[in-house]
From TrEMBL, chain B:
GO cellular component, one term: plasma membrane
Designated name of the protein: ABC transporter permease
Lineage: Bacteria, Pseudomonadati, Pseudomonadota, Alphaproteobacteria, Hyphomicrobiales
Molecular function as annotated in GO: transmembrane transporter activity
Listed Pfam families: BPD_transp_2
């Protein structure tokens, strides 16, 4: 799923606790839980093969997870006890500042929603909220034991919590169409986030993504309407997207501190230009009409089929892209150099990594992935609309940040972003499910970014910098 | 004037040059600008943008790459809150509304500052977070544009006269900033923006200074929201993103450094006026259905170009040290004033010699692309100046040039700061122009917009 946690020296990648008794205990716990789920499955009247399959999977995952947590909590032989507990009240505040602040923010949000949405006031929601707070405490306390991968761990815990709470409070949340929908929108967002992640690793940001998405969306339909073969039109739009990304990279290379503002301006200009080009000679200013080819519709529509399977190809495409990006970042020279540049620009330059090259390539990929998202969204909606990318203005950034990619020191990766994307989409589905409007969702997303960044993106105090 | 040292304000050269070009073009293309209602509506329309830009300037000077992207949504938030409270009949009086507006602005910015200082998250992330949250909550408060502004504001947004409360607010804001620059607090602020560690080690209480900068920014946003409410006399939750983009563009165009420590009210004002004029000039061309897209394209391009221009600031400082931005300002200001007077006092638009000087283009191009054909009946039809007025103007111009030249020589010899006297003097000159134009201007006039107060910056 993501990068391995810990430094790998504790039990390798398998996480086997040192004490034999503990392993047996874990096995017993796993067995009990698996048995309960087995019984529940038959009681719900699901077919036997499915129950057995799910039970086996659950048991395996649970066993690994419990072992893993046990390893994390094992006293390390090398480390000494770090002093005695500090003074009670002050110590609690100093050690858990972020946790307390996050919990109080959540409490405020909960009270706000409860006060404004009458249908929200139910016992189930209260229980769900308390559960969420408990999970938060757990995540924070456990995450303090990580040197790396903290944010991914917290992200996964939050994701799990969200799924649990949603399935409790919303009927049909775990139904196949709903999961498919969540994954489909996650795929759109995830593909758009590929470039944003790479750029963020290098310490830049790309705000032109939504405009490129919207532009490629209407541009592709316009080209198809002109009679260009659809595959050629897609290739052309992708190339244009990559070119725009390259331009972004070249222009912002000297202005790295202001890359965000520059790309925003570029995006604005691109959207304006494409709208001018597509509305010349048409009486509908800015609106493009045309028919989307069948294969493109199948690619991204909810009822799309992949080789006969009832899964939209976009989801599989996202999985493939995610694997390529994660593996590429971890094992290829290109990926390692990106981390090197993000971590310490100067050192990387001294060992001969060309900063300009990687900076522009990251932006080029960003433009390309945004254009690809625009094309896929055209297949999904079936009509060109310049505003289709608007919601991606900050959601790409939010996904990167919530996933745990640091915007400062080249720490993170695409695996983290995938977690972030899933958290955002599940949260959004949950909020829609409890009947919140899109505006409230935006509000909550906005408030969610801060505690997430506060977890791992904090700058050192000025006293530490002098 | 010392050879070794460039003026501190060389970065102002670009916006000054640009505003001269734009203002000339705007006046030639849309002569309605130079009239009482033209100036009035220009002030009303550009006031929210100017104040939003000031707010960004105060934060940008504070360093750490603080670009408050939430400025537009915050302005809209205050706007819809005022309208909503007014609709519910809770807060309707002038005192209460102003208190609410400034209070919300200051509270938000205070919160922002505390997060930056104590949670130590990058300001840009906090700003993004605020952007999202405020955009959402605006639509919750007011799902679609509507509502009514308080009654006592109804006369503010007419824009048929120059001296409106909105102008007063803008002038007060400028004056307050200029007074603020005389304090040591401002020096500390700039030091902190330029190099936070140096400021910290030299004993500046950076947390206090940062909070102060944010409070000032909050006040400006509150004022901007009041002007915006007066302008549209209703609530509009949807304009936040556009306002943010234009304000950030104005900030960059005004030569304010986004990395901190450089910038001031003059740059912010020039940048905001430039953006307003760009919109105005584009509106005089008829692009048909693509008008909005062309404007969007130009805003984006100008933002990118002005960012790239900031790379040239050190170069300008190195090679153009002998040009004082202030002198350039005065010279170009005189040229533009001449064009304005010429355009407003002639009802035929021949090729003005001054205009061609200023625009550096040949007459053919000028007549083909820049000049509107003489309109019959509509538009301004001003009589020629009386001899007395000509004499007054001539005298004023000579006096101005003499005084200002002396003043420039003195100021450049001693220091590079512009004294407050200059602002007062130039403002007085321009007010004189207003008076003359206003006297002659017939009340009728298309509510086109334009701006002249700008060159008083």
């Amino acid at each position: 799923m993501t990068q391995t946690f810990g430094d790998g020296s504790r039990g390798g990648g398998l996480f086997v606790p040192r004490s034999r008794a503990l392993v047996w205990l874990n096995l017993a716990v796993t067995f009990v839980v698996a048995a309960i789920s087995f019984g529940l499955g038959f009681w719900q009247g699901i077919s036997a093969q499915v129950v057995i399959l799910y039970t086996v999977v659950l048991a395996a995952v649970l066993f690994w997870l419990i072992n893993y947590i046990a390893v994390i909590f094992e006293p390390r032989p090398s480390s000494l006890d770090t002093g005695s507990a500090p003074a009670a009240a002050g110590g609690v505040w100093a050690g858990n500042r972020v946790l307390i602040i996050t919990m109080s923010v959540m409490l405020i949000v909960y009270l706000l929603i409860t006060a404004t949405v009458p249908s929200f006031r139910s016992l189930g929601n209260l229980i769900a909220f308390l559960l969420l707070e408990a999970i938060l405490v757990f995540a924070f306390k456990v995450s303090n034991r990580f040197a790396h991968g903290r944010s991914a761990f917290i992200g996964l815990i939050v994701l799990l919590a969200l799924i649990v709470i949603s399935s409790f409070t919303i009927n049909g949340f775990l139904s196949a169409p709903n999961i498919k929908a969540i994954l489909l929108f996650a795929a759109f967002l995830g593909i758009a986030c590929v470039g944003q992640t790479l750029v963020a690793l290098l310490g830049g940001l790309d705000l032109s993504i939504p405009f490129v998405i919207g532009s490629s969306n209407i541009g592709l339909l316009f080209l198809i309407g002109l009679g260009v073969p659809s595959w050629l039109a897609v290739v052309f739009v992708l190339l244009i997207g990559a070119t725009l990304g390259f331009l972004n990279g070249v222009l912002s290379y000297r202005l790295q501190g202001q890359a965000l503002i520059l790309t925003l301006g570029m995006g604005f200009a691109i959207a304006g230009l494409v709208q001018i080009l597509t509305s010349i000679g048409s009486s509908f200013g800015g609106n493009v009409f045309g028919t989307v080819p069948k294969w493109l519709q199948n690619l991204a529509a909810m009822n799309g089929r992949t080789f006969g399977l009832a899964v939209p190809p976009t989801i599989l495409l996202w999985i493939v892209i995610a694997i390529i990006v994660i593996v590429g970042l971890r094992y290829s020279a290109f990926g390692r150099y990106i981390y090197a540049l993000g971590g310490n620009r100067r050192s990387a330059k001294l060992i001969g990594v060309s900063e300009f090259k990687y900076w522009t390539v990251a932006y080029t990929i960003s433009g390309f992935s945004a254009a690809l998202t625009g094309c896929l969204l055209l297949g999904w909606s079936g009509g060109g609309f310049i505003g289709v990318g608007d919601q991606y203005l900050f959601t790409t950034l939010a996904a990167v940040v919530i996933g745990g990619t640091s915007l400062m020191d080249g720490y993170g990766g695409y695996g983290y972003t995938v977690i972030g994307v899933l958290v955002l989409q599940v949260l959004s589905a949950f909020l829609i499910g409890i009947g919140l409007k899109y505006e409230w969702q935006q509000f909550i997303f906005g408030l969610l970014i801060l505690p997430m960044v506060a977890l791992y993106g904090r700058a050192p105090d000025i006293r530490a910098q002098v | 004037m010392s050879q070794s040292r460039a003026s501190q304000n060389t970065y102002l050269l670009v916006p000054i040059l640009l505003i001269a070009l734009l203002l000339s073009t705007a006046v030639i293309r849309g002569p309605n600008l130079v009239s009482l209602s033209g100036f009035g509506s220009a002030i009303i329309v550009s006031a929210p943008l100017i104040l939003a830009t000031f707010s960004l300037v105060a934060l940008a000077v504070a360093g750490r790459g603080t670009v408050d992207l939430a400025v537009g949504p915050l302005l809209a938030f205050i706007n819809v809150t005022i309208v909503k409270l007014n609709g519910l009949g809770i807060v309707t009086g002038p005192f209460g509304v102003i208190l609410v507006a400034l209070g919300i602005g200051v509270l938000y910015q205070l919160f922002f500052a505390l997060i930056i200082i104590f949670v130590r998250v990058q300001p840009i992330i906090v700003a993004l977070s605020g952007f999202l949250a405020l955009t959402g909550i605006n639509l919750v408060i007011l799902p679609r544009p509507g509502g009514t502004a308080p009654d006592w504001m109804s006369s503010w947004g007419l824009g048929n006269t120059i001296f409106s409360p909105v102008l007063l607010i803008v002038l007060l804001a400028i004056a307050a900033w200029l007074l603020f620059t005389m304090t040591s607090f401002y020096t500390n602020l700039r030091l902190m923006g330029y190099d936070e560690r140096a400021a910290y080690t030299s004993g500046v209480r950076i947390n206090v200074v940062r909070i102060g900068a944010h409070v000032i920014a909050g006040l400006f946003v509150g004022l901007g929201a009041i002007c915006y409410t007066a302008l549209i006399s209703s609530g509009d939750p949807t304009q936040g993103t556009t306002m943010t983009l234009t304000a950030v563009t104005a900030l960059v165009l005004g030569g304010v450094s986004l990395s901190g420590g450089r910038g001031g009210v003059a740059g912010g004002l020039l940048g905001a006026l430039n953006l307003f004029l760009i919109g105005y000039v584009l509106a005089t061309f008829n692009f048909g259905s693509t008008q909005a897209f062309v404007t969007q394209l130009f805003y984006g391009l100008i933002l990118v170009l002005s960012l790239l221009l900031t790379l040239l600031v050190p170069v300008i400082g190195r090679y153009l040290y002998f040009i004082s931005p202030f002198a350039a300002f005065v010279v170009l200001g005189c040229v533009v004033l001449g064009i304005m007077l010429y355009v407003s006092t002639r009802d035929t638009y021949g090729v003005a010699a001054v205009a061609s000087d200023a625009l550096k283009t040949n007459p053919d191009v000028l007549t083909r692309y820049l000049l509107l054909p003489p309109q019959s009946g509509s538009g301004v039809a001003l009589p020629d100046l009386s001899p007395l007025q000509k004499a007054v103007f001539g005298f004023a111009a000579i006096l101005a040039v003499l005084t200002l030249t002396v003043r420039v020589v003195v100021s450049e010899a001693v220091s590079v700061r512009l004294g407050a006297f200059i602002y007062v003097f130039v403002s007085a000159l321009i007010l004189l122009l207003f008076l003359v134009v206003g006297e002659q201007s017939h009340a009728a006039g298309i509510a086109a917009a334009g701006q002249l107060v700008g060159i008083t910056a």
